Amino acid sequence: MNFYFFRSLLHLIIILFGVSLISFALMHIGTIDTVDLLYSQYGGTTEEPLTAKRIALGLNEPIVTQYIHWISQICSGDFGTSFVSGRPVSEILAAKIPGTALLMLTSTALSVCLSLPLGIISAVKKDRFPDYGCRIFSFIGTSLPDFCIGLLILYCLVAQGSGKELFSPSLPILPTLTLSVVISAKYTRQIRALFLEELNKSYVKAALARGIPPRFIWMHYILPALTAPLLTILALSVGSLLGGTAVVETIFRWDGLGRAAVEAISLRDYPIIQAYVLWSTSVYVSANFLADMLGRKINPGRADTREKEVLS
Fold first, then answer.
1. Which of 33, 52, 75 is the last residue of a domain?
2. Fewer CB within a 10 Å sphere, N or C end of the chain?
3. Smallest Cα–Cα separation from 265: which of 69, 31, 34?
């Protein structure tokens, strides 16, 4: 277990280093940088002020030197300074992360509350009307991108003159609803598949043959068996939430980190973009790492172990 822990931790560090290197290189291969965009707003200027500004920001140095300087700052806890606002990036992140974290928590909670009963109903009522309804919802929710669902919600609730009270500066009602539809659709399919897999195992059939009520089997045997894979699914959804919140936050003007990243991308504000990419990657790989460790810790046992427990 200790060997697996340290090996996984090493993989996490390598992934973070690789993502930081690739993202840094991709952002600096463009022909237009922050200085060009800033001075283009004032109708352009001569080359001397542009060169002086690049020297002040360190953009005149080779990309390898810039990366080494940036990664050394990150290791010391300094995320740099915004090229546009001049504020410390850590200060900007600290102000935006709570909004994104709240959106992630509410979306995940609502998604679990929706998808868990829908997935179980779909599995128990296989090839019947409830199953067809859940599968249609899952297919539509998975096929439509989150920004499309967000625009549909805006049209249905706001463009028709209703639902304006759902825009709250402190509670992300509409962004949560948008993300929850997408995530719940994916969760429902996965929970249905996992539940059906457990239903077809021998220990469940043995329990049913002994006259144990189906609901008792679901609650005391199948759901505990699904704990580890469900944790993995939740961890994997963190990545999709981080990617989706950037678009959804922009649509609903929610003051979060994703919206700040979109604005930074439009202005080529490299320090904020790099910090956002690094933060998103860190959260994603850390969530997967913790889910993996918890799954091994919880590990409800194999099917043959549960079958012995049922038959004993």
1. 75
2. C
3. 34
Structure tokens at 218: 């679901």
pLDDT in tens, 22-78: 888 887 776 666 776 666 655 556 677 777 777 877 777 888 888 888 888 888 888
Which residues, in sequence order, are CB contacts of 224 under 8 Å at separation 6+? 300
Nearest to 261 by CA among 240, 283, 286, 278: 278
pTM (predicted TM-score): 0.76
Cα 285 to chain center, whole Å?
11
The DSSP-derived string for 119-170 is HHHHHHTTTSHHHHHHHHHHHHHHHS-HHHHHHHHHIIIIITT--GGG--SS
**CA 111-117-123 angle, 5° bins:** 120
Cα–Cα dist 246/258, whole Å: 4
Per residue in 277-311, pLDDT tens?
A: 888 888 888 877 877 777 677 654 444 444 444 44
Would you say 187 and 226 are in contact if contact means Cβ atoms under 8 Å apart? Answer: no
Task: Give the residue from 225, 232, 230, 187 showing the smallest Cα distance to 204.
Answer: 225
Q: Do 159 and 70 sit in the same domain of this protein?
A: no
d(CA 171, CA 240): 21
3-state helix, strand and coil shares in percent for the chain, rounded to the nearest 5: 80, 0, 20
CA torsion 38→40→43→49, rounded to 10°?
Answer: 60
Those residues whose C-beta lies under 8 Å from the C-beta of residue 115, and which sit 6 or more positions away, are 183, 184, 185, 186, 187, 188, 191
Look at residue 83 and tell me if it is in a domain. no
